[in-house]
Design goal:
This protein has 129 residues and is of the alpha+beta class. It is built from 2 helices and 10 strands; from the N terminus they run E-E-E-H-E-E-E-E-H-E-E-E.
Amino acid sequence: MVVLQQGHIKLKPKSLSYLEYPSRSLPLTKAFFSQVFGWSFTDYGDQYTAFSLENVDGGFYLSDTVNDPHKGGALTVFYSDKLNEIREEIEQAGGVISQGIFAFPGGHRFHFKEPGGSEFAVWSDCHLE
């Protein structure tokens, strides 16, 4: 198996390596993900910004259309061991809870829209506080 190095991520054949999301406001999106998740960004002009995480790289591009799982868009789901705490952080950073905490087999989760308009979710397998 060949493993390549991209940034600080080791790429394996057929592995997920890059995610791109639309945003109506790159400055608001960057501020939100920096505040809640601690991400940093590299701008490529005024219509694209990239991030690099431990396990995947990605970016946000300026768009009037945003990611909406209810209209066929993919749902990216984050993990947290403190669901209520991260929900409060998301709201304090300008995110909007689009679906409150609900149970599903394996845990609980909620959905939110970041200030640029795209929808994401957070799940936990831990007992709710």
